[in-house]
Design goal:
This protein has helices at 8-23, 29-37, 46-49, 69-79, 96-103, 115-128, 163-166, and strands at 58-61, 64-66, 86-90, 107-112, 133-136, 149-154, 169-179, 184-191, 197-205. By secondary structure, it is an alpha/beta fold. Helix 1 packs antiparallel against helix 2 (29-37). The chain binds S-adenosylmethionine. Residues 64-67, 90-91, 93-94, 96-97, 111-114, 117, 138-140, 155-156, 207-208, 210-212, 215 line the site of S-adenosylmethionine (SAM).
């Protein structure tokens, strides 16, 4: 069972969480505000909800996790999302990262390989008044029918910087993608106006694997 109450206590805990991730280096005010606006405890089973405002990844069932709030804020800050942008997310999971992107006013397209997770994420989006486009399938291949995108965010560990996903970026677009098997390096890839990639290597993180045709084998 989940609770859809958002009490003063929850709001207070959320303010503290935002302070924590700000101290860890997230400075983009719009991103901090988006994190502050989304009740993370709604995305968790009641057994886990008490931990929602710790800066930790937590289980969401099916062997998957809701990312650590700092990681969500970090990826979102480097993605430079603005209102009206078309953003593709690979790995809908709980829907939390997607909700943060929706809170920034972007048009979200999100792909998840596990149908039950996509279904419960859809309920969450509806509760929050967001209407993203959700797909159940192998997101390692992106969502070519809906391309091109202004931004692409991959929230599972990929074996390499995906050329299939890069091909679905608009010129001037940005992709953020964690690459590696046990530990991942976060990469930000910008598609320049002439279509060439400009790649930046960022910090290390740990994600569950991206499983699929252009991902890891199950
Ligand atoms: N963004 C999520 C959130 O806010 O809760 C966290 C995502 S979790 C760290 C990674 C997700 O990627 C899992 O739900 C997993 O099932 C999904 N995933 C793994 N491989 C995938 C693939 N090929 N296509 C789509 N989703 C995939």
């Amino acid at each position: 069972m989940r609770s859809f109450v958002d009490s003063f206590k929850h709001k207070g805990l959320r303010n503290k969480l935002v302070e924590t991730i700000h101290k860890k280096g997230i400075t983009d005010k719009a991103v901090l505000q988006a994190i502050n606006s989304i009740p993370r405890h709604w995305f968790l089973d009641s057994a886990m909800a008490d931990h929602a405002y710790q800066d930790k990844a937590l289980p969401i069932g099916e062997g998957q996790t809701i990312s650590q709030p700092f990681t969500v804020a970090y990826q979102t800050q480097f993605l430079q999302v603005a209102a009206g942008m078309k953003v593709l997310e690979i790995g809908t999971g709980s829907g939390y990262q997607g909700a943060v992107i929706c809170a920034l006013g972007a048009q979200l397209f999100s792909v998840e390989r596990i149908a039950s997770l996509s279904k419960s994420a859809q309920i969450m989006f509806k509760k929050l008044g967001y209407m993203p486009n959700l797909l159940v399938g192998d997101g390692s291949l992106g969502w070519p029918q809906m391309a091109p995108f202004d931004r692409i965010i991959v929230t599972a560990a990929a074996p390499e910087i995906s050329h299939q996903l890069y091909a679905q970026l608009k010129p001037g677009g940005i992709m953020i993608i964690p690459v590696g098997e046990k530990v991942q390096v976060m990469y930000r890839v910008m598609k320049t106006a002439d279509g060439e990639p400009k790649t930046e290597k960022l910090e290390q993180f740990r994600f569950v694997p991206l499983i699929g045709e252009a991902g890891f084998k199950p």
